[in-house]
Design brief:
Elements (H helix, E strand, L loop, with lengths): L1 H5 L4 H6 L3 H7 L24 H23 L5 H32 L6
Helix pairs in contact: 4-5
Length: 116
Amino acid sequence: MIYKLLDGVPAEVLEREGLGGHYAVHNSALFYVDPNGVPWTATYIQAQGDPVSDLHEDMAAEQKARQAYEQLLHLTDDPLLKDGIRWLREREVVHYQRFGEALNDVQGFMNTKKYY
């Protein structure tokens, strides 16, 4: 989506819209930052080593991503872009469901008696 949205946009327009620094350093390559320009870092990954708490964290992350896509839908009127964003949002819903199923499996296993 980023490549399609920036395709053919002159450098002068990117500069005027506040994207000149990004273009100068990264051209049209993706560079993972939040809307405030804070770069992505692996410290955002929350893992405790406990499968139950880790799966809850994964489920929360999927819900946050779904909500972000909901907000993005309100920022454009381009029907093709909206279709892509809706597809990504639906994917987050499916991920949330799969993590929920995994959580049920893990909790079921943890609650069974183990005989050795």
